[in-house]
Design goal:
By secondary structure, the chain is mainly α. The protein is built from three helices and no strands. The longest helix has 19 residues.
């Protein structure tokens, strides 16, 4: 009888050392920063700010400004 090999699962370590979710996120963020640059982050930040302003209105900014000043 030959021994059957079980397929690898997430719980079984591979030959490489397992990477944590935190490490994977950090490495992915670094790679994105290298490939896209400062302008990319400025553009998506501006889009996010515009969308927040549309959905929440000026009262939202007044409230968070007040909280920040406390």
């Amino acid at each position: 009888m030959t021994e059957k090999k079980r397929p690898a699962t997430a719980k079984q370590p591979t030959e490489k050392a397992a990477m944590t979710v935190r490490e994977a996120g950090r490495k992915g963020g670094q790679k994105t920063a290298e490939s896209h640059g400062h302008e990319f982050y400025a553009e998506i930040g501006q889009k996010g700010g515009q969308k927040t302003a549309e959905t929440h209105g000026p009262e939202f900014y007044a409230e968070i400004g007040h909280k920040g000043g406390q």
